[in-house]
């Protein structure tokens, strides 16, 4: 177990004493149908901040991805998958304490993270990877990816696809490798072969294009 994980776990245990939140494990049906509680979500987010940053901005290089501003539907699905063991990551379940959270907790946490506007509180400068042909990446993206992820890579609720713009290139590279290896499912389809015919350069170009969408200059 890495020293960084142990430090995060220690911080989590120390933090838990100040986290004035009792997860709604016994939440009623009416709670589950209620509007998400952003104040509750903000308090629950203190655990997430140990790895993802105060504003869920992630870490440059993508060890921990940007979460701020991702669609609430996607965040809720991802958090539920981690809580229920569909996806595994010790930092998410141990440090984040997801195993104890109710559906209402997760909905409130997701709504809070989705509401964070990094342009206001913590502007990001996501670098474009060296060697990427952004124009080729744009052509491939609009041909093959736009239908699911949106013209501006803003995500698509109907297809449960995430926002990709503004995400760190290192994180995107790792997820694509997982899709190709079959250790993570793409597009909710275990037989999906989206990335099989892409060359390494094509993938670099697509990711390079995605890093430019949020550029303000």
Automatic annotation (TrEMBL):
Keywords: Electron transport, Heme, Iron, Metal-binding, Periplasm, Signal, Transport
InterPro entries, A to Z: Cyt_c-like_dom, Cyt_c-like_dom_sf, Cytochrome_c4-like, Cytochrome_c_Oxidase_Subunit
Signal peptide range in chain numbering: 1-27
Transmembrane intervals: none
One Gene Ontology molecular-function label: iron ion binding
Domain Cytochrome c residues, every copy: 36-117, 132-214
Binding site for heme c 2: 145, 148-149
Record-level GO cellular component terms: periplasmic space
Locations listed in the record: Periplasm
Pfam family, one: Cytochrom_C
Residues holding heme c 1: 48, 51-52, 92
Record PTM: Binds 2 heme c groups covalently per subunit.
Chief location of this protein within or outside the cell: periplasm
Alphabetized PANTHER family for the sequence: CBB3-TYPE CYTOCHROME C OXIDASE SUBUNIT FIXP (PTHR33751), CYTOCHROME C4 (PTHR33751:SF9)
Protein name: Cytochrome c553
Source lineage: Bacteria, Pseudomonadati, Pseudomonadota, Gammaproteobacteria, Chromatiales
């Amino acid at each position: 177990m890495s020293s960084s994980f142990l430090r995060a776990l220690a911080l989590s245990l120390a933090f838990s004493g100040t986290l004035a939140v009792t997860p709604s494990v016994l939440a009623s049906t009416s709670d589950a149908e209620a509007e998400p509680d952003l104040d509750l979500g903000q308090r629950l987010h203190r655990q997430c901040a140990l790895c993802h940053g105060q504003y869920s901005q992630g870490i440059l290089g993508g060890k921990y991805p940007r979460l701020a501003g991702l669609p609430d539907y996607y965040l809720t699905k991802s958090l539920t998958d981690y809580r229920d063991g569909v996806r595994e990551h010790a930092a998410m379940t141990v440090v984040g304490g997801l195993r104890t959270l109710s559906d209402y907790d997760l909905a409130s946490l997701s709504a809070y993270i989705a509401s964070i506007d990094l342009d206001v509180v913590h502007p990001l400068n996501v670098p474009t990877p060296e060697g990427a042909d952004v124009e080729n990446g744009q052509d491939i993206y609009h041909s093959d990816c736009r239908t699911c992820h949106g013209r501006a890579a803003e995500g698509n609720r109907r297809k449960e696809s995430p926002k990709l713009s503004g995400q760190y290139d290192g994180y995107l590279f790792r997820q694509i490798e997982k899709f190709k290896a079959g250790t993570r499912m793409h597009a909710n389809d275990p037989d999906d072969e989206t990335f099989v015919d892409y060359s390494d350069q094509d993938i670099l170009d697509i990711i390079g294009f995605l890093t430019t969408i949020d550029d303000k200059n």
